[in-house]
Design a protein that fits this description.
single chain, 306 residues, mainly beta, conserved putative lor/sdh protein from methanococcus maripaludis s2 fold, Elongation Factor Tu (Ef-tu), domain 3, OB fold (Dihydrolipoamide Acetyltransferase, E2P), 3 domains, six-stranded antiparallel barrel, four-stranded antiparallel sheet, 1 helix, 19 strands, Multidrug efflux pump subunit AcrA (Membrane-fusion protein), efflux transmembrane transporter activity
Length: 306
């Protein structure tokens, strides 16, 4: 009996379902849920903005001590060290470290060749020179100081300046154009050590034998450094104030002429040519586009075919 009731129920349900599916049926048995399609997100855009453009040069190098500086004799004669100066002593720049006597006393006359009385000394021409001071060319520790006969320009001592400087290798010769008027200073990072150090430009040196060009900067005296440490120095070589710019990512081309992709309110894009100027690591100077126009910040190569 229970089996018959179950079979009847299934058949009744089937009839109801078939009736609902018959052509002309006024009401469907199921309603599709509402489906909402989200609009495509608007791509990231940028507009022309006024900002400063910084031209920078990044060089790497090594920390070194300064080369000793020679103190030289201004005249020929007998160099006599100052009684107040000793080797290993620190001296200031322009300190008197000795004198040169251009008219030293002649040596005493010895016995004659036969053991008889010495011959009368010949008259020496009168020396009209006067003693000349020798001054330290730099501040530092002095060495090599001794009494000696010297020629004009001969070294009489060496001065070891305190502190360190950084020798930076110039790998790309084109970088030298940025040092036509060298920057006064730069920012240094000692690898594995302190960073943000202000360093002062010293000189540019060209080695004829190797063809290597080096830039030297002085390191701060209050920072503990050691010869051989590696360093990175960044120079700001020029600044253009308050110029119209776009992000580098928005521009195709890097010098002279370039292109951007504009986008209007309805999302239509168009390729536009612009004139490019100076650039830094993030922005480039542009002209030929209104500040109210939006451009794609990250255009694809296919966007430039629009």
């Amino acid at each position: 009996m229970r089996h018959r009731l179950t079979t009847a129920g299934v058949l009744a349900g089937t009839v109801v379902l078939l009736i609902g599916c018959l052509p002309g049926s006024s009401k469907p048995t199921a309603t599709a849920p509402d489906v909402r399609v989200s609009p495509m997100p608007r791509p990231a855009t940028a507009r022309v903005e006024a900002r400063d453009i910084y031209q920078t040069v990044r060089l790497t190098g090594v920390v070194e001590t300064y080369e000793p500086v020679e103190a030289k004799s201004p005249v020929a004669g007998r160099f006599l060290p100052s009684s107040r100066v000793r080797n290993g002593q620190s001296v200031r720049r322009e300190a008197v470290i000795g004198t040169v006597d251009p008219c030293p006393d002649p040596a005493s006359t010895g016995p004659g060749p036969t053991g008889g009385p010495s011959p009368e000394p010949t008259a020496e021409p009168e020396c009209e020179g006067r003693r000349r001071n020798v001054r330290s060319p730099a501040a530092g520790v002095i060495s090599g100081l001794r009494e000696q006969d010297v020629a004009v320009g001969a070294a009489v001592a060496a001065i070891q300046p305190p502190g360190h400087h950084i020798r930076l290798s110039v790998e790309d010769p084109a970088v030298l154009f940025h040092f036509t008027e060298p920057p006064e200073s730069g920012k240094a990072e000692i690898l594995g050590g302190p960073s943000g150090l202000t360093v002062r430009y010293e000189k540019r040196v060209y080695d004829r034998d190797s063809g290597q060009v080096s830039v030297y900067v002085s390191a701060p005296g209050d920072v503990p450094l050691f010869p051989g440490l590696r360093a990175v120095v960044v120079f700001v070589t020029s600044v253009k104030d308050d110029v119209l710019t776009l992000p580098l990512s928005a521009v195709r081309g890097r010098s002279g002429q370039g292109e951007v992709v504009t986008i209007d309110e309805v999302g239509k894009t168009r390729r536009v040519e612009v004139t490019l100027g100076e650039a830094d690591d993030a922005y480039v100077e542009v002209s030929g586009i209104e500040s109210s126009v939006e451009v794609l910040r990250y255009p694809l190569e296919s966007d430039f075919g629009a």
